[in-house]
C-alpha cells in the first residue's frame, strides 16, 4: 500500500496538500489497509445555517496541527504501528444532485466496508449518515447506533432530505436497532411516542462521571456491531461554534474525548464526524475539535489491535 510520511511527522504542519493527518491519498483497498477516511462535502439537507460542505477540508487542514505527536496523549502507542489508514478523498457528486450523492456515498461506503475496512466519514451535514447506515447494513445487518448530538435527528417527517430526520427514516428502513442504541448529549425536544433509543441528555452527561456515561453506553449496546455517529454540535457552542445549529448546554471537548477513549469494549463497525461549518468557526476551534475527535476514534480502533510485528 502507499506509504505514509505522517505518523513519523517527517513534514511540517503548514506545507503540502492537506489529507487527513497527511495520510496517503488513495482509493486502492489493499489487504493491509485497516481503515479509510472519506469526505462528503454535502450540505443540501441542512435546515438552518448551511456551509458544512466545507467541513471535510477544514477538518483535514486542522488535523495538520496533530501530526507532530508520535504517541498521541494519552495513548501509549504509535497509531501507524497498529492501524493502516488512508484518505479516500471526497465523494464528488454533481452540484445540487442529492440523489447522486446518496447513491455514490452508499456505493463507495459499501465498497470499503464489504472489503473489511472500517470507514470514518467526514461531513458534510448529518443527512449523509443515512446512505452510510444503508451501506453498513448491507454488510453487518441491523446495527446498534451510538449517536452524539444536541438533537435526536428523529423528526417524523416525509421530507426526504432533512438532516434532522435521517434516524427516523433509518429506523423505518430497519437499519439500526433503537432498543440497543444510545444518544449522548441531547438537549432539544423530541417526540417521546416515536422515539425508543436510550437518551443520555446533555445535563445528565455533564452531571455524571465519564465512567458512568461509558457504563450506561456499554450496558445498552453490549457487544453488538455498533455505528458511531458524532455531530459536532454535541459539544457546547463554546467548544464548537462552527456548526449550523448550535445549542447551549453541551459537552466540553475534554469530556467528549474522554468518553470516546472509554469505548474500548464496543465492536465499532463504522464512524462519522458531521456538521462542521467553517464559516461560523473562530480560530479553527471547531475544526480542531473535530480533527482531534476523529484521531481519538482511530486510536480507539487501534487500541483493540496488537502492534504489528
Ligand atoms: Mn445536531
The assigned structural class equals alpha/beta
Residue share in helix: 25-40%
Order of strands in the sheet with most strands: 2-1-3-8-7-4-5-6
Strand coverage percent: 15-25%
**Global morphology:** globular
Secondary-structure element sequence?
EHHEHEHEHEEHHEHEH
CATH fold name = Arginase, Chain A
Written description of the protein model:
With 309 residues, the chain is α/β, with parallel strands linked by helices. 31% of the residues lie in helices and 15% in strands. It contains nine helices and eight strands. The chain has an eight-stranded parallel sheet with strand order 2-1-3-8-7-4-5-6, sandwiched between helices. Strand 4, helix 5 and strand 5 form a beta-alpha-beta unit. Helix 4 packs parallel to helix 5. The chain is globular and about 50 Å long. Bound molecules: manganese (II) ion. Manganese (II) ion binds next to loops. Manganese (II) ion (MN) binds next to loops.
Could you outline the blueprint of secondary structure elements for this entry?
Layout: E1 35-40, H1 55-63, H2 79-82, E2 85-90, H3 98-114, E3 118-123, H4 129-140, E4 144-148, H5 166-172, E5 182-186, E6 198-201, H6 202-207, H7 210-221, E7 225-231, H8 253-261, E8 267-274, H9 285-303
Parallel strand pairs: 1-2, 1-3, 3-8, 4-5, 4-7, 5-6, 7-8
Helix pairs in contact: 1-9, 3-4, 4-5, 8-9
Manganese (II) ion (MN) is lined by residues 149-151, 231, 233, 245, 275.
Amino acid at each position: 500500500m502507499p506509504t505514509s510520511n505522517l505518523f513519523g511527522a517527517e513534514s511540517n504542519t503548514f506545507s503540502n496538500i492537506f489529507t487527513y493527518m497527511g495520510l496517503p491519498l488513495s482509493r486502492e483497498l489493499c489487504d493491509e489497509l485497516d481503515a479509510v477516511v472519506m469526505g462528503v462535502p454535502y450540505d443540501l439537507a441542512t435546515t438552518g445555517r448551511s456551509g458544512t460542505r466545507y467541513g471535510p477540508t477544514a477538518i483535514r487542514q486542522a488535523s495538520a496541527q496533530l501530526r507532530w505527536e508520535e504517541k498521541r496523549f494519552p495513548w501509549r502507542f504509535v497509531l501507524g504501528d497498529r492501524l493502516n489508514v488512508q484518505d479516500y478523498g471526497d465523494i464528488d457528486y454533481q452540484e445540487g444532485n442529492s440523489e447522486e450523492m446518496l447513491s455514490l456515498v452508499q456505493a463507495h461506503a459499501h465498497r470499503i466496508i464489504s472489503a473489511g475496512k472500517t470507514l470514518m466519514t467526514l461531513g458534510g451535514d448529518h443527512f449523509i449518515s443515512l446512505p452510510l447506515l444503508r451501506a453498513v447494513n448491507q454488510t453487518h445487518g441491523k446495527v446498534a447506533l451510538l449517536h452524539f448530538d444536541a438533537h435526536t435527528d428523529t423528526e417524523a417527517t416525509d421530507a426526504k432530505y432533512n438532516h434532522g430526520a435521517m434516524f427516523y427514516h433509518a429506523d423505518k428502513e430497519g437499519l439500526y436497532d433503537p432498543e440497543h442504541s444510545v444518544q449522548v448529549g441531547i438537549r432539544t425536544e423530541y417526540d417521546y411516542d416515536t422515539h425508543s433509543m436510550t437518551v443520555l441528555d446533555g445535563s445528565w452527561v455533564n452531571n455524571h462521571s465519564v465512567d458512568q456515561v461509558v457504563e450506561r453506553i456499554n450496558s445498552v449496546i453490549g457487544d453488538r456491531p455498533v455505528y458511531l455517529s458524532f455531530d459536532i454540535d454535541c459539544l457546547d457552542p463554546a467548544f464548537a461554534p462552527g456548526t449550523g445549529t448550535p445549542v447551549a448546554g453541551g459537552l466540553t471537548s475534554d469530556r467528549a474525548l474522554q468518553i470516546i477513549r472509554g469505548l474500548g469494549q464496543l465492536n465499532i463497525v463504522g464512524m462519522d464526524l458531521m456538521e462542521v461549518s467553517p464559516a461560523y468557526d473562530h480560530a479553527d476551534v471547531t475544526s480542531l475539535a473535530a480533527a482531534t475527535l476523529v484521531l481519538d476514534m482511530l486510536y480507539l480502533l487501534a487500541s483493540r489491535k496488537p502492534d504489528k510485528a
